[in-house]
């Protein structure tokens, strides 16, 4: 076998480790879940050590199950959940057992005070292009620690994002990249470095962050200890990697200006690839760096994506487990008469984010009737997620002015054919899926491959055929009017819900 690459995705629900041949074929993969805790209102935490443990277990599984000689592993890299910050001491000691992750809401007072002192959100947006609720970014949680745990803050020599902490544990190297720092809350997107003005107003220093490197640069090598624990060869090169948003784009083959994609996982995001920072403050469009240095993402983010499907299946099909529950739900929903009236479902089970931009957002069923059963509810949830994506798509095309001829969708939600067909017919364009749905791991492997010189650049990697398109869902013109009417009801329900959310 020729050289292989390993991509590690440190996600919200677990760690995925995947090994790829240099032609993009998946050789082996493993997945290990980790817990999320809610110790207080607005507090959402995970244990960084769980990320490390899941990574080590996944690497062991992949090396064992693949049968690949460790000498054939050319490089390793990461995709990582963004906006969480891990404090470590000067000696590398982890200073807190659990850290607030991206969904944590505790830093609202710190963010509000900062924006007031800084001249408002629009002034801040002009530097950072961060349109989502800014209290979710890393900088303001660091402010929270400075105020609520000053002793810990004083001991912290560095603050690391998820992938950076795992990188440190695997190699001993301290490094970050522009993609992760963009959503750190203190990054000047045009200048490509931390903003002195933002840091000063927040009471932070640039020295609190690791050395800035490109996502594809080699930061270190697998240590002898980690090699022994995982089966990897000591000295295996490890690239810095990128945040999960940029990896989702790169893993969907969105590597050139105008390419469009959507990621449909626990959260939902997507947009277009641009050659310069492009944003829109009014609609709170987010822009940040691509893992390809000369490119940027312009996109919208909803904090609730396909997790709504998991929620309804776990609660309405609780007598079943795993894949059987999902298969049964899909089968029952597929048997419903197409002319049956479904309730409208607003899939905003987590607050904040596009398209509503409301901190009190919640899930809503509208139009429930006595004749509705669990199959109706499941299908309503599936359609609600599809309709939410369509709202974001419409905003992307309106603000960017781009015409999108086909849309690539990646993430776990892409495995639902009912949802993909609804999106294709609702948008009126083909929806393309990749044969390998481990898009974030593939992008991480791409970082490793570029770092060790397997390809000279990202487009060469794409041209080599590493992205394998599997299937296209074609729009059904006969469904266009029906789905347009359903979309209008979805938008109307969202406006009503906003009024209710404002009363909370």
Task: Describe the structure concisely.
With 504 residues, the protein is an alpha+beta fold. Helix 10 (244-251) packs across helix 15 and helix 11 packs antiparallel against helix 13.
Q: How would a crystallographer describe the biggest sheet?
A: 7 strands, mixed
Share of residues in helices: 25-40%
Count of strand segments: 24
What amount of the residues lies in strands? 15-25%
Could you give the distance between the termini?
Answer: 60 Å
Which structural class is indicated by helix and strand composition? alpha+beta
Report what the structure shows.
There is one protein chain. The longest helix has 27 residues, at 374-400. This protein has 504 residues and is α+β, with helices and mostly antiparallel strands. Strand 2 and strand 3 form a beta hairpin. 38% of the residues lie in helices and 20% in strands. The protein is built from 17 helices and 24 strands. The chain has a domain at 307-392 and 481-501: 2-Layer Sandwich (Nucleotidyltransferase, domain 5), CATH 3.30.420. It is globular, with a radius of gyration of 22 Å.
């Amino acid at each position: 076998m020729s050289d292989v690459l390993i991509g590690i995705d440190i996600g919200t629900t677990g760690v995925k480790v995947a090994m790829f041949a240099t032609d993009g074929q998946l050789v082996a993969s493993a997945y290990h879940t980790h817990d999320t805790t809610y110790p207080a209102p607005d507090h959402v935490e995970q244990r960084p050590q769980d990320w490390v443990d899941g990574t080590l277990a996944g690497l062991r599984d992949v090396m064992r199950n693949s049968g690949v000689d460790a000498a054939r592993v050319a490089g390793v890299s990461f995709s990582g959940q963004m906006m969480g910050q891990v404090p470590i001491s000067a000696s590398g000691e982890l200073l807190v057992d659990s850290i607030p992750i991206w969904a944590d809401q505790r830093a609202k007072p710190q963010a509000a005070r900062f924006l007031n002192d800084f001249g408002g959100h629009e002034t801040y947006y002009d530097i950072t292009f961060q349109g989502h609720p800014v209290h979710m970014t890393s900088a303001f949680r660091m402010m929270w620690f400075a105020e609520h745990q000053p002793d810990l803050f004083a001991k912290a020599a560095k603050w690391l994002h998820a992938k950076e902490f795992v990188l440190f544990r695997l190699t001993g190297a301290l490094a970050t990249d522009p993609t992760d720092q963009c959503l750190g809350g203190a990054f000047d997107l045009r200048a490509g470095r931390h903003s002195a003005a933002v840091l000063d107003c927040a009471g932070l220093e640039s020295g609190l962050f690791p050395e800035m490197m490109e996502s594809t640069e080699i930061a270190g090598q697998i240590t002898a200890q980690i090699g022994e624990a995982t089966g990897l060869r000591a000295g295996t090169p490890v690239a810095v990697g990128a945040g999960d948003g940029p990896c989702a784009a790169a893993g969907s083959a969105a590597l050139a200006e105008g390419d469009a994609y959507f990621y449909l996982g626990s959260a939902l995001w997507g947009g277009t690839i641009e050659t310069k920072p492009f944003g829109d403050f009014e609609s709170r469009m987010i822009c940040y760096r691509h893992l390809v240095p000369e490119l940027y993402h312009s996109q919208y983010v909803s904090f609730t994506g396909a997790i709504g499907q998991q929620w309804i299946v776990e609660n309405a099909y609780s007598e079943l487990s795993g894949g059987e529950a999902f298969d049964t739900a899909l089968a029952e929903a597929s048997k419903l008469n197409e002319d049956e009236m479904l309730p409208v479902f607003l899939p905003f089970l987590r607050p904040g984010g596009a398209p509503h931009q409301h901190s009190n957002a919640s899930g809503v069923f509208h139009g429930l009737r006595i004749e509705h059963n669990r199959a109706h509810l499941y299908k309503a949830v599936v359609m609600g997620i599809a309709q939410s994506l369509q709202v974001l798509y419409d905003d992307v095309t309106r603000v960017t002015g781009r015409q999108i001829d086909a849309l690539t969708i990646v993430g776990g939600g892409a495995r639902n054919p009912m949802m993909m067909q609804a999106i294709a017919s609702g948008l009126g364009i083909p929806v393309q899926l990749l044969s390998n749905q481990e898009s974030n791991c593939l992008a991480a492997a791409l970082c490793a491959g570029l770092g060790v010189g397997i390809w000279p650049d990202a487009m060469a990697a794409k041209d080599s055929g590493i992205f394998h398109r599997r299937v296209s869902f074609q729009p059904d013109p006969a469904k266009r009017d029906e789905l347009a009417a359903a979309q209008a009801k979805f938008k109307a329900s969202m406006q009503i819900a906003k009024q209710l959310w404002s009363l909370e």
